[in-house]
Amino acid sequence: MSAIALREATEADFETVKPWFEDPRNNVFFTAELRDIAEYKKMYYLMALRDRKNVYYMIETEPERRPIGFVALINIDHGDRTGQIWYVLGDKNQRKKGVMTGAVARVLDRARSELELHSVHTWVVDDNVASIRVLENNGFARIGVQRESYFYDGRYKDRVLFDKLL
User: Fold this and answer.
1) Domain that holds residue 107
2) For 12-22, what is each residue's pLDDT tens digit?
3) For position 152, which CATH number holds?
4) Domain total for the chain?
């Protein structure tokens, strides 16, 4: 695995993440309202950063501190101590190097120790094999399938549901 560091994302990171979120190879896996966006607006990013139910992290190489990806804990419910994780690898040269597996592991550690979450969940489109591998390598369990609940390019696909007790 490449050496990585995490830091909380800030407003200054917008220009870095903007092309990652606009890239069809990434946003094809986003929820419908953010899928295929031609221009990811700063307003969306700022609203998300300011929402107290979300925590966003930049993934950076070490020791260079070059941004290569993004991991988020969203929909955090401090009462029930749960949250949802999602992630984007912006630098495609970092694929298959364990970067996202390591970043997710670190965010899960923070979710447990700093945010005191008890569980984390997410969903993945059924043909996103790389993302499924990241989750399984981090001990997530498949808990079900939402059949044909993802519509893209004129066809339905399943969402595979995952969770992990921390």
Assistant:
1) 4-165
2) 999 999 888 88
3) 3.40.630.30
4) 1
- How many angstroms separate the CA atoms of 95 and 80, rounded? 34
Torsion region of 157: left, alpha or beta (phi above 0 gives left; psi -120 to 50 gives alpha):
beta
Query: Torsions phi, psi of 145, nearest 5?
Result: -135, 130
pLDDT at 36: 66
Instruction: Report the chain's C-alpha Rg in angstroms.
Output: 15
The string of pLDDT tens digits covering residues 21-73 is: 888 888 777 777 777 676 777 878 888 888 889 999 999 999 999 999 999 99
